[in-house]
Amino acid sequence: MNLFSVEMKAVTWQKDSHGLFDYETQLLTIEKHVIQQQQKVYRLGQEVSTYSPDSEQDESQQYLTTVQEQGNKFYINPEGCEENENFLIVRSLKNSQGGQKGYKMEPGDIIKLGRMEYVIMETKDKDNLVNQASSELLKDQFEQTASYVTSSSAICRFCLMDTQTLEDPFISPCNCKGSCQFVHFNCMRQWIESRCQIKQLNNAQSYRLKQQQCELCESLLPLKIRMDDKELSLDVIQRPSTPYLIMQSRHKKEKKQGKAVYVIQFQNGEPIKIGRGHQCDIQISDISVSRLHAYIKYQDGNFVILDNNSKFGTLVKLFQAYRIEEEKVAVQVGRTVLTFVLKQQCTSENH
């Protein structure tokens, strides 16, 4: 017999708008469920229901998530929810005093502010420990091994010079052949920098980076080139000496104009403000982002994001099962918010 059950409160916004949930609206449908064993959660219209894992549902029902039970422990399991991604709601995470404790960000985390999504690419703490996102997220930033070109016919396709040095060798960074095969390393780097817009912000630098690919053969360009015992970097992003965090936008509409990359530095203990307003360190020009949407703090060696009671919330994508405990935790799935809390069941011995 299970010693615990899960109380689930389902709140659905009656308006369907880009998968958002309005945290200020009164147009809500509210339901409550008690879950004692593993259940799948579905929504049909405004109604949220739970079913056993082996039951088959009509295609008109939207699968939201699974409440998984293992040995008197319950988890929110987002597996199979690709069409309805599960996002942890940052403001639902509370400390022992009942205040918002925030979410500790790690490389690979996907943060959603309104409808705008950002991936945490890299962090460096006060001990100079650098962490990067997984290779899957960095799949367009690969390394390439090369050797010094000895061909007497090699000519740089940019400057048309036929000489090279140990500091500025010829490289072959793409699939082009013939007269377009070789380019000086420094010429290649200058070309990449010319395609990058850099802007200095209060406590950050923003980069607008177009995808690094050859304009002729369209193959992706490497981020690093290893030649013998040294490494040549084509990465134009400058890293500060203080603790920093790098986050990159991930929006399809930015394919032509390039990705927005923010290098946020923490040097005076002040939180970084993110929002639509002019007072923010990171300004995001989208109507779904509040004027002062969220804060990022560097505290106790961690990069922590906190929500500022924003209209459409600050969210973190769930990639794996998240344990439900006695403190309330909430996830957003499209226009539905599911709040979970673990409860001890009453038995005859308790009376």
TrEMBL record:
Coiled coil: none annotated. It comes from the Eukaryota. Residues 148-224 form the RING-CH-type domain. Residues 272-316 form the FHA domain. Signal peptide: none annotated. One of its GO terms (molecular function) is zinc ion binding. Keywords: Metal-binding, Zinc, Zinc-finger. CDD domains: FHA, RING_CH-C4HC3_MARCH. InterPro entries: FHA_dom, SMAD_FHA_dom_sf, Znf_RING-CH, Znf_RING/FYVE/PHD. This is FHA domain-containing protein. It comes from Paramecium tetraurelia.
